[in-house]
Amino acid sequence: MRTFSSGATRDSDDDKLDFEGFYSPLVIRRYAEYMHKHRLQADGEMRDSDNWQHGIPRDAYIKSAWRHFMDWWMEHRGLPSREGLEEALCALIFNAMGYLYEVLTAPPIPLAKDRVCFSCKHETLLWNEIPCSECLNVSLDGPEKWEPK
Fold this sequence. Notes:
Number of helices: 4
Radius of gyration: 24 Å
Strand order of the largest sheet: 1-2
Structural class: mainly alpha
Strand content: under 5%
Oligomer: single chain
Order of helices and strands: EEHHHH
Distance between the termini: 55 Å
Number of strands: 2
Number of domains: 2
Shape: extended
């Protein structure tokens, strides 16, 4: 319980997300300026500000992020980049946010009949669970590897 000098009380905010503390208005403003600048398309039309939320493949995000990371790294090393430090950082934020958005909004991967463990041949629950968790044998004393049952 919090009690203010006015006598007003509120519950504790220890378990609440602190957006005001997690973000900087300077960074958010600069990022918004970057995003607005890049709304103008090659054909002269202005894209909607939330256009990126319509879906961009993760591969496009990661390839773009690498290009902008290289610009950031060049600037960090005192070398000239294609676009400058602030543009590179804003572009990285965009690509990370877009990629995370795609992860968070992706539909669950359904169990498919062709997704089977190559060791025991039973259906797996996850697309990347090959071998399945039942066949995975990880030794804590040695190198991590899988071995069939």
